[in-house]
Design a protein that fits this description.
The protein starts with a helix and ends with a helix. It has a 3-stranded antiparallel beta sheet with strand order 1-2-3. About 45% of the residues lie in helices and about 15% in strands.
Length: about 70
């Protein structure tokens, strides 16, 4: 069963990404200084996440964790 959009958003926040100010609609962007471009999550909180959204979130979290280890 795929995770919900709200779960992906919670994972991003827990990993240290911040919600960026964006326009109207169901798209949210999360950023971090170690990412080249922000992660965009589309859909409403109760919607099932798409596989590509899960992969993008996991890659972003891995990049942030890797940058933390390189700094220490």
């Amino acid at each position: 069963m795929p995770p919900k959009i709200r779960e992906l958003k919670a994972m991003l926040l827990k990993a240290g990404l911040r919600l960026l100010p964006t326009g109207k609609g169901s798209h949210c962007q999360y950023g971090h200084p170690s990412l080249i471009r922000p992660v965009t999550i589309s859909g409403h909180d109760g919607d099932d996440a798409k596989r590509y959204q899960e992969q993008e979130v996991r890659q972003a979290i891995a990049t942030v964790k890797k940058s933390r280890h390189e700094k220490h």
